[in-house]
Amino acid sequence: MSLRIDQDHSRFKQIVRGKIKANLRKYVQQGEMIGKKGKDLISIPVPFIDVPHFKYGQREQGGVGQGDGQPGDQLQPGEPQEGDGKGKAGEGEGEHALEVDVSLDELAQILGEELQLPNIQNRGTEKIVTTKIKYTGVHNIGPESLKHFKRTYKQALKRQIAMGTYDPGNPIIVPVREDRRYRTWRLENLPETNAVILYMMDVSGSMGDEQKEIVRIESFWLDTWLRHQYKGLETRYIIHDAVAREVDRETFFHTRESGGTMISSAYKLCRDIIKTDYPPSSWNIYPFHFSDGDNWSADDTRLCVDMLKSDILPSVNQFAYGQVESPYGSGQFIKDLREHVGAQENVALSEIADKDGIYGSIKDFLGKGR
């Protein structure tokens, strides 16, 4: 029975995985799914999965096997019945969606398979070392918080049977001090590869709520894939208009300013954070910048290009720039980046017209496997 249940559960997981892959593009575009994210799981609505079953027709219906007919007669389908569209509202159930909890790691694997994303080659040479408790066995002394109830019960049962005090008609097991068993443990140092994402976003007046929602959705999928690749991942957030500042995640996605745009201010802060906190020999570094393509001046754009060439690109795994289309943005900045740094191996550029463009943009950013 246990084997049959395991087989059914495995089959169910395969069906759910197939449904998610078939609808992945739709899920990527949906921001409300992100709101159902837990610490390690996310709820995804999949089309209702019904158990296959036979459906019987009405009784006393004519036809082969149910009335008149001869061997060899062809079976004819019944005449379709069409409604006139004037009926009253029905009382039956409609279509349902089943919400399935999927681990973020499993979701990343599905994303990688569907977009054919290569695994990332780690760049850092040093690693974070984390301490983890590993249970190694059972002992007859220890703290009550580590009491092994099952082993204690079994030891008490064996003792009572051996002493002849166990009564099957009144199976009461009373452990004594000698029966108690406790888990033993030791600390293990586990290496984890370092990685950091530095998100930068233009929050000037030309970047509206729709553009920020696109950035929010795309950053969720970028996070999901990179956390699948790296066990130790940090995230930093920088917003800018004419001035850049570091903020928390909530502020990053919900701040809107009315000033002008100087992209160099964000690149300067990004450069300083990398120099101070993330030595390239130890960290895999991923700056992601999103804007609508407006910048204050051509001089500031030249300053951005100079910083990229001299400071940022030599230090990072990959620099990615996503240009979110806006009715108020000129869209010039991505053209300048293509001209001056677009040929660099660790540069990824992407234009995102709307939510439909997120799917392709993720491929642009992650498809190099850097």
Concise description?
The protein is of the alpha/beta class.
Describe this structure in words.
- It is a single chain.
- This protein is an alpha/beta fold and 370 residues long.
- 35% of the residues lie in helices and 22% in strands.
- It has three domains: 1-50 and 96-116, no CATH class; 129-188, no CATH class; 193-366, von Willebrand factor, type A domain (Rossmann fold, 3-Layer(aba) Sandwich), CATH 3.40.50.410.
- It has ten helices and nine strands.
- The strands form two sheets. Strands 3, 4, 5, 6, 7, 8 and 9 form a seven-stranded mixed β-sheet that branches.
- Strand 5 and strand 6 (244-247) form a beta hairpin.
- It starts with a helix and ends with a helix.
- Mean pLDDT is 79; it is low at 92-96.
- Count all strands and give the number: 9
**What name does CATH use for the topology of the largest domain?**
Rossmann fold
Low-confidence stretches: 92-96
Large-scale geometry: flat
Q: What percentage of residues falls in helices of 4 or more residues?
A: 25-40%
| Number of H- or I-type helical stretches | 10
Task: Please write the CATH class name of the largest domain.
Answer: Alpha Beta
The CATH architecture of the largest domain comes to 3-Layer(aba) Sandwich
